[in-house]
Design a protein that fits this description.
This protein is α/β, with parallel strands linked by helices. It has helices spanning about 75-85, 100-105, 140-150, 165, 170-185, 200-205, 235-240, 260-265, 290-300, 305-310, 315-320, 385-390; strands spanning about 5-15, 20-30, 30-35, 45-50, 55, 60-65, 85-90, 115-120, 155-160, 190-195, 215, 245-250, 335-350, 355-370, 370-375. Strands 1, 2, 3, 4, 5, 13, 14 and 15 form an eight-stranded mixed sheet that branches. The protein binds zinc ion. Zinc ion binds near residues 64, 91 and 250.
């Protein structure tokens, strides 16, 4: 048998199989065909990955890709190629009123696999200047449930941005949060709560959540954080993480503060998943891409294997897709990120302009989606050029 693609000599890190060693990876018909110490079979395209890392295609659990329909939206496919991100979760760009359009115009037309959370607000994130739930009449839990029922392969959960200037204060804020929870329960899915100047405290929020629900922006600064007044991570937050509440990074333009990430690391509190919250206002810094965000956790002392786990296996589990995503198991869809780990001095900037100097940077050298080497990412030419060169 002839393989379609052979990635040769890279260091394979696949936490789903507890693998970390140099192996060849072969792909045929869009699926992983073999992962072996040495594969001596001809392939249509061969990549020399010596000195590089070969990991499952990255999963970004927080992006905004409804371009031109929301001010935040960016194009999904370039993000995939440039960042090794083969699956991404759009977190609430669309609500019940515009989800069908998002599906038709973006999800169905992209090569990247895009899954989505449905915003509790029927209008999603269509406007920058007025919070989408500031008028309670936009809250549409029934519409969310109906949207998930109609699009079960794309709409996988519920999103609320629980900031006071978005959901309102006092009773209104709570009514909105409870509507979002109700929509998640009635749809049999899960809820992602964005925190940021929330009208309720973190312990009050996590008390309402179930295992599988998610807090995003977990290292944000500002008044409502995962820390109590004494600077310690709330006991309730630790207990929530232990019972299966997901704590997601969602770096964004205002949601990653070095001091908070460092304090959490010192206290042994790790996020469940690393995500970017990539959107139009941070893609040219300070977020840039997924590999840069991952490098920030290398700086914080998280071992490389766990950083890969937090961007492959764990988000796959959050999505209930660990059987076919975030893994290089033979027979699974061939979504692969070839990453370069570079040593040097790198300025790592948080959402407040505060910097740290990291000694390691990650960069996507190549991205493979369903067995196809993608144009637009990293050091390797794309598949057609390789074929023209007779490789
Ligand atoms: Zn976001």
């Amino acid at each position: 048998m002839r393989y379609d693609l052979l990635i040769r000599g890279g260091e394979v890190i696949d936490p789903s199989q507890n693998v970390r060693e140099v192996r060849d990876v072969a792909v045929v018909d869009g699926r992983i065909a073999a992962v072996e110490p040495r594969i001596d079979v001809e392939a249509r395209v061969t990549l020399d990955a010596r000195g590089l890392l070969v990991v499952p295609g990255l999963i970004d659990l927080h992006v905004h890709v409804y371009r031109d329909h929301t001010p935040w939206g960016v194009e999904p496919d370039p993000i995939m190629a440039a960042g090794g991100v083969t699956t991404m979760l759009d977190t609430g760009s669309a609500g019940s009123s515009n989800f069908a359009g998002f599906r038709r115009d973006v999800i169905d037309r992209s090569r990247a696999e895009i899954l989505a959370l449905v915003n509790l607000s029927s209008i999603g994130l269509t406007s920058f200047n007025v919070g989408e739930l500031f008028d309670r009449r936009y809250a549409d839990p029934r519409g969310v449930v109906e949207t998930i029922r109609r699009h079960p392969d794309a709409a996988v959960g519920v999103k609320i941005r629980a900031s006071e200037h978005i959901i309102g204060s006092g009773r209104q804020g709570w009514d909105n949060l409870r509507d979002a929870i109700r929509a998640a329960r009635e749809s049999g899915t899960w809820l992602m709560v964005h925190i940021g100047h929330t009208p309720m405290s973190l312990p009050e929020i996590v008390a309402e959540l179930q295992p599988g629900d998610c807090i995003t922006h977990c290292f944000r600064g500002g008044p409502q954080t995962i820390f109590a007044a004494d600077g310690r991570v709330f006991d309730e937050v630790r207990a929530a993480a232990e019972r299966g509440i997901v704590f997601d990074v969602g770096h964004g333009m205002g949601s990653f503060r070095w001091e908070n990430a460092e304090a959490a690391a010192e206290q042994g509190f790790e996020p469940t998943t690393i995500s970017t919250d990539l959107h139009a206002f941070n893609i040219e810094g300070p977020v840039w891409d997924m590999p840069t965000t991952m490098a920030k956790f290398l700086y914080l002392g998280v071992p490389l294997e766990r950083v890969i786990e937090m961007t492959t296996l764990r988000p796959a589990r959050v999505l209930g897709r660990s059987d076919d995503l975030g893994t290089l198991k033979v027979g699974t869809p061939a979504d692969i990120a070839v990453l370069e780990l570079i040593e040097g001095r790198f300025t790592l900037t948080d959402s407040h302009g505060t910097t740290r100097i990291g000694r390691q940077m990650l960069r996507a050298a190549a991205t493979v989606k369903r067995g196809r080497l993608l144009h637009g990412g990293g050091r390797f030419p794309f598949e057609r050029q390789l074929e023209a060169a007779g490789q």
